[in-house]
Design brief:
Elements lengths: L30 E3 L16 E3 L2 E2 L5 E2 L2 E10 L2 E8 L8 E4 L9 E3 L19 H12 L11 E3 L3 E7 L29 E6 L5 E3 L6 H4 L65 E3 L2 E3 L17 E3 L6 E2 L2 H10 L8 E6 L2 E7 L4 H12 L14 E10 L2 E11 L6 E3 L1 E4 L8 H16 L4 E2 L5 H20 L10 E3 H8 L3 H10 L3 E4 L2 E6 L1 H13 L23
Parallel strand pairs: 13-15, 21-23
Antiparallel strand pairs: 1-8, 2-5, 3-4, 5-6, 6-7, 9-12, 10-11, 10-24, 11-26, 13-14, 15-16, 17-18, 18-19, 19-20, 20-22, 25-26
Organism: Mauremys mutica (yellowpond turtle)
Protein name: Histone acetyltransferase KAT5
GO cellular component, one term: nuclear lumen
């Protein structure tokens, strides 16, 4: 999980006003709304019920979003209800008291005829109607790697960068007097120069499968801009929630053979009421106390504790502070196990082999699962390498974040899971992790891409990193011969180690590509240039390749495992 803006709850109308409750009377099956004239009793509220719940948003204002009751418990005669706010991230789920429930607008679950379980799994119950519909849609999505047969997309290969001076505008053969668009228009009184990147070789077609879709990498929203001049026959796939085809687990959830691939994509096929609820109240890690966002399969006897204590160096979990203090007298680690391959200032990176350091790797995965909901946790860590970023002080090397990658990836993944711990988020460490993963790819001589789907915060960080890295190259292009400097998409990919599909999708997301008279023209507007310069001033933490001491291994030889 990476640094990014805090979760923003969308504003909703007060349910006390005259309106129709979400999910009520709109054709959704599974919940029968009770008439508002008759208030339900607290004892009637059971698992599966939906009703508005009072909460405070980020503006410290009261709101009543619709929520689903996932669990009910009784503590000393006081009932508590675990609620999931519909259409919002699961990390906002919480336990609430009955005085925060709007019992006038309760929606009772529809009674099931016979089958109280789902998929034949014990301990499961039928999911909510919206959840089942979404699962059906998710399973029907095409994988990102599936090629679109018969579809080709003419993607520019060679581009040139041209500077248009405000006073002496360079003449282009065949260019009309009117500008292509408002973003490429140059006014004489502008204080800065306008920059154009022009594609001069549109003849090389690229299969549509090479385009990582904007829907999968950059989901469309109200603020996103569409790419200009979409070509006929272009096929845009959506696969941000695709199923995991690399998993070698059997249908009953028991591994049929040792895993030789490392895909961690969660297919949600075994998601039940237990894993939908947070099971750890609080984690103490060094000088920080963390409130988990999601379920993590720690031992059952530890889930009832008010605080779970972790050693910040070996990540071993214990049940009490006294046990932790006793453990610290015997634990001689002051840094993650493995090799330190990077150090600059107080920042260090350690490379950890999942086969040689299984205990640490498993504990790291358990901790990371508290903040990653879209990945599956395996205790078989052999196929993975873990790169842990730490911050050094007089007491030792304190974990800040990490990313894992497969030793052998058939999909060119250079990241499987990536996470910045909450106390260190919004401080630039997320981009530093991403930059380090691509620095390793440069040493390996490969291009890489993160394993999809990305979390919401991870998506924001990758989108920002790709944009800044590509814009930095385009703005620094210079020509030694006095002609327009030229660069190709493949060259951008080789320089940055960013996969070509991610380069293309980033240019489309930034709305830099314009199609004109058989050529693709990339236009850098003043807003984009100014925004990029401001962002780079804030980006203080950077990876210094001179401080990296890393030798890649050939993991195809099983002897090195």
């Amino acid at each position: 999980m990476l640094s990014g803006p805090e979760v923003t709850m969308t504003d909703r109308k007060d349910p006390t006003r005259s309106r129709k409750c979400p999910g009520a009377g709109n054709g959704r099956e599974g919940h029968a709304p009770r008439r508002a004239s008759k208030m339900a009793e607290v004892g009637e509220v059971t698992e599966g019920c939906r009703l508005p719940v009072l909460r405070r948003n980020q503006d410290n204002e009261d709101e009543w979003p619709l929520a689903e009751i996932l669990s009910v418990k009784d503590i000393s005669g006081r009932k508590l209800f675990y609620v999931h706010y519909i259409d919002f991230n699961k990390r906002l789920d919480e336990w609430v008291t009955h005085d925060r429930l709007d019992l006038k607008k309760i929606q009772f679950p529809k009674k099931e005829a016979k089958t109280p379980t789902k998929n034949g799994l014990p301990g499961s119950r039928p999911g909510s109607p919206e959840r089942e519909v979404r699962k059906t849609l998710d399973l029907s999505l095409q994988p990102a790697s599936t090629p679109a047969s018969g579809k080709t997309l003419p993607i520019p290969v060679q581009i040139t960068l041209r500077f248009n001076l405000p006073k002496e505008r360079e003449a282009v053969p065949g260019e009309p007097d009117q500008p292509l668009s408002s973003s490429s228009c140059v006014q004489p009184n502008h204080r800065t120069t306008k920059r154009k990147v022009e594609v001069v070789s549109p003849a090389t077609p690229v299969p549509a499968s090479t385009e990582t879709t904007q829907a999968s990498v950059f989901p469309q929203n109200g603020s996103a801009r569409r790419a200009v001049a979409a070509q006929p026959g272009r096929k845009r796939k959506s696969n941000c929630l695709g199923t995991d085809e690399d998993s070698q687990d059997s249908s009953d959830g028991i591994p049929s053979a040792p895993r030789m691939t490392g895909s961690l994509v969660s297919d949600r096929s075994h998601d039940d009421i237990i894993t939908r609820m947070k099971n750890i109240e609080c984690i103490e890690l060094g000088r920080h106390r963390l409130k988990p966002w999601y379920f993590s399969p720690y031992p059952q006897e530890l889930t009832t504790l008010p605080v779970l204590y972790l050693c910040e160096f070996c990540l071993k979990y214990v049940k009490s502070l006294k046990c932790l203090q006793r453990h610290l007298t015997k634990c001689d680690l002051r840094h993650p196990p493995g090799n330190e391959i990077y150090r600059k200032g107080t920042i260090s990176f350690f490379e950890i082999d999942g086969r040689k350091n299984k205990s640490y790797s498993q504990n790291l995965c358990l901790l990371a699962k508290c903040f990653l909901d879209h990945k599956t946790l395996y205790y078989d860590t052999d196929p993975f390498l873990f790169y842990v970023m730490t911050e050094y002080d007089c007491k030792g090397f304190h974990i800040v974040g990490y990313f894992s990658k497969e030793k052998e990836s058939t999909e060119d993944y250079n990241v499987a899971c990536i996470l910045t711990l909450p106390p260190y988020q919004r401080r630039g460490y997320g981009k530093l992790l991403i930059e380090f993963s691509y620095e390793l790819s440069k040493v390996e001589g490969k291009t890489g891409t993160p394993e999809k789907p990305l979390s919401d915060l991870g998506l924001l960080s990758y989108r920002s990193y790709w944009s800044q890295t590509i814009l930095e190259i385009l703005m620094n292009l210079k020509s030694e011969t006095g002609e327009r400097p030229q660069i190709t998409i493949n060259e951008i990919s080789e320089i940055t180690s960013i996969k070509k599909e991610d380069v293309i999708s980033t240019l489309q997301y930034l709305n830099l590509i314009n199609y004109y008279k058989g050529q693709y023209i990339l236009t850098l507007s003043e807003d984009i240039v100014d925004g990029h310069e401001r962002a780079m001033l804030k980006r203080i933490l950077r990876i210094d390749s001179k401080c990296l001491h890393f030798t890649p291994k050939d993991w195809s030889k099983r002897g090195k495992w």
